[in-house]
């Protein structure tokens, strides 16, 4: 795991996920522990394509907190709802999956991170032309999540200024289960939330299946300038996954998801139900004499049922989509090459082609790469069909978005020192942006051409006992026709961290700084810059298998917002205790 500031380690299982029955012995701090083989992502895409894009990041914990402290991945946080964004593009361009199941909703194009925070997650973050996941359309960035379960028993509990969490889990030879409860106390009007989540998995060499259920009731804050928009949200999420991993050179996964949201404020109380069912099949051509080549085909049918004539009635809308992706990775000495071709057909917008090409040169100390790729995104049901009310309205005349991104970079590592620099340039055509018109109603529209480019810098030094690092983003964004900057695109972001470790005692701290951003398309209003700091101490307790974590977020009690009108918490303290009992015998 990269040295991301894990401020919620006190309330998260720091465990290892497994889809295999193989067991290996790992020595951690002179303590022997037996783990199942770790599978961070269902697909092997990050491993195969890591050489051709910016560094793959690992996260573990509650997704909101982890991504907020992951370099180069800003999070738009509305208090009880939150979404990731990468390289200045809207959140809809971040592909998200859970255990190989696509999460991006046909209704709004993204997924609300707090829902999976109840169980705690482990995941991978990618960005760049090759960051498309195994399912769905190529994207500009990807976040792949799953719930980690350690073989044996794990229990944790934590209390904090604004947050409390309790979890219990057990992993056996062929099965595992986990249950969690998470609550957040209000730090501003109508922001309290409470929820529970459970998951059961069964796996053997021939089949693996899982059922995940999450229920959350939360307050959705209205902006400070209009508290009447505050309301409540009821979420009911179900994910059923069934996989056949042992089909020779092929594998298949089937899934079904159900996400019900009931929202109520002073003006309306709509209920939205989204159903999705799909299948993913992959074939590896290695045994057929084409090493490094594979093809993946997926089909998804999603339906939004939002029929309610007295509220925000989107009606009933559905979308079927099929995707086929052929990819290849090859090596010639120190050189690596990669190619990918993808075709997608949606029932309402027809067909589209995309793909990526990459080249890399890798030595022991340094490496460099160059890649270019394209992506395509159909408008969401909200963007197309949201009924006109006094504040918002959809636009059924929208065209799909298309983005072409080029990236080049280099990495170097020598002894304790490491450095990386990446330059990217994105050209978005028909980018969908919500803007307020002369009638003060917000509507989405296509912007003909938007250019986004920037530099990403990573520096670190790890001396074992002590480590320090810096990550920086320096970006520009411009609507080519108007010369204006799209909203919420910071020009500078900096992240400074350090870590000390003495035996099994660990101390981490970090400071993140984000520049001011425009909050409207006309570039007349700004959201101020902000700087936040955090720290954490983790230490073992005298009792076998128990540890203590103490963390503080927003150490300097700064007032800041990532979205206008939604102030985030002041100084937060979290104290937690974990117990883990490993009960797996070593491999002979």
Please tag this protein with its features:
mainly beta; 588 residues; 22-stranded antiparallel barrel; disordered N terminus; globular; single chain; five-stranded mixed beta sheet
Task: Provide the fold topology.
Elements: E1 23-28, E2 31-36, H1 45-49, E3 57-61, H2 63-68, E4 75-77, E5 82-84, E6 94-98, E7 101-102, H3 114-117, E8 121-127, E9 141-146, E10 152-160, E11 163-171, E12 175-184, E13 193-203, E14 208-220, E15 231-247, E16 250-264, E17 271-284, E18 293-306, E19 315-332, E20 335-346, E21 350-362, E22 366-377, H4 381-385, E23 401-414, E24 417-436, E25 442-462, E26 466-479, E27 492-502, E28 505-514, E29 517-518, E30 526-527, E31 530-540, E32 546-553, E33 572-581
Parallel strand pairs: 6-9
Antiparallel strand pairs: 1-2, 3-8, 4-5, 6-7, 8-9, 10-11, 10-33, 11-12, 12-13, 13-14, 14-15, 15-16, 16-17, 17-18, 18-19, 19-20, 20-21, 21-22, 22-23, 23-24, 24-25, 25-26, 26-27, 27-28, 28-31, 29-30, 31-32, 32-33
**Major sheet:** 22 strands, antiparallel, barrel
- Helix and strand content put the structural class at mainly beta
Q: Termini, distance in Å? A: 28 Å
| Relative strand content | over 45%
Q: What fraction, in percent, of the residue positions are helical?
A: under 10%
Which blocks of ≥5 consecutive residues have pLDDT under 50? 1-43, 583-588
Helical segment tally?
Answer: 4
The tally of strands reads: 33
Shape: globular
The Rg value, from CA coordinates, equals 23 Å
| Average pLDDT taken over every residue | 84
């Amino acid at each position: 795991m990269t040295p991301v500031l894990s401020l919620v380690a006190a309330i998260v299982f720091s465990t290892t996920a497994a889809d295999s029955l193989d067991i290996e012995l790992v020595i951690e701090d002179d303590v022997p522990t037996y783990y199942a083989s770790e599978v961070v992502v269902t697909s092997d895409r990050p491993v195969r394509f890591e050489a051709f894009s910016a560094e793959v990041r690992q996260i573990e914990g509650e997704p909101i907190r982890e991504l907020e402290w992951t370099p180069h991945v800003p999070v738009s946080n509305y208090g009880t709802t939150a979404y990731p964004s990468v390289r200045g593009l809207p959140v809809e361009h971040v592909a998200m999956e859970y255990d190989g199941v696509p999460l991006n909703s046909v209704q709004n194009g993204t997924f609300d991170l707090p829902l999976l925070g109840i169980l705690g997650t482990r995941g991978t973050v990618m960005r760049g032309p090759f960051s498309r996941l195994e399912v769905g359309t190529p994207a500009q960035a990807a976040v792949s999540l799953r719930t980690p379960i350690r073989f044996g028993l794990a229990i944790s509990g934590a209390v904090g200024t604004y947050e409390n969490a309790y979890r219990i889990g057990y992993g056996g030879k062929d099965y595992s289960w986990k249950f969690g409860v998470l609550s957040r106390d209000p730090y501003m009007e109508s922001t309290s939330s409470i929820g529970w989540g459970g998951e059961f998995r069964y796996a053997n060499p021939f089949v693996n299946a899982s059922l995940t259920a999450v229920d959350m009731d939360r307050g959705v804050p209205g902006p400070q300038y209009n508290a009447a928009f505050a309301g409540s949200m009821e979420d009911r999420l179900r994910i059923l996954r069934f996989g056949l991993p042992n089909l020779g050179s092929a594998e298949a996964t089937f899934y079904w998801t159900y996400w019900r949201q009931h929202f109520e404020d002073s003006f309306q109380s709509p209920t939205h139900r989204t159903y999705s069912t799909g299948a993913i099949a992959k074939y590896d051509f290695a045994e057929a004499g084409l090493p490094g080549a594979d093809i993946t085909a997926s089909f998804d049918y999603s339906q939004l049922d939002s029929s309610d004539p007295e509220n925000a009635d989107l009606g009933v809308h559905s979308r079927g989509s099929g995707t086929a992706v052929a990819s290849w990775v090859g090596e010639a000495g120190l050189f690596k090459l990669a190619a990918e071709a993808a075709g997608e057909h949606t029932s309402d917008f027809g067909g589209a082609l995309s793909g990526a090409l990459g080249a890399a040169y890798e030595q022991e100390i340094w490496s460099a790469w160059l890649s270019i790729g394209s992506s395509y995104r159909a408008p969401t049901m909200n963007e197309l069909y949201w009924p006109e009310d006094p504040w918002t309205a959809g636009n059924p005349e929208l065209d799909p978005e298309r983005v072409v991104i080029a990236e080049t970079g280099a990495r170097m590592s020598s002894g304790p020192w490491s450095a990386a620099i990446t330059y990217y340039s994105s050209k978005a055509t028909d980018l969908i942006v919500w803007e307020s018109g002369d009638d003060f109603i917000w509507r989405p529209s296509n912007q003909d051409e938007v250019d986004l480019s920037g530099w990403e810098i990573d520096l670190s030094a790890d001396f074992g006992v002590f480590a320090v690092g810096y990550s920086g983003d320096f970006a520009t964004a411009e609507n080519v026709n108007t010369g204006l900057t799209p909203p919420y695109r910071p020009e500078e972001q900096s992240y400074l961290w350090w870590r000390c470790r003495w035996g099994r005692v660990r101390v981490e701290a970090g400071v993140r700084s984000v520049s001011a951003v425009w909050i409207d398309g006309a570039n007349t209003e700004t959201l101020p810059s902000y700087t936040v700091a955090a720290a954490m101490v983790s230490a073992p307790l005298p009792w076998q298998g128990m540890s203590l974590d103490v963390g503080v977020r927003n150490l300097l009690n700064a007032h800041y917002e990532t979205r206008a009108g939604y102030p985030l918490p002041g100084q937060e303290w979290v104290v937690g205790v974990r117990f883990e009992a490993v009960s797996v015998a070593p491999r002979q």
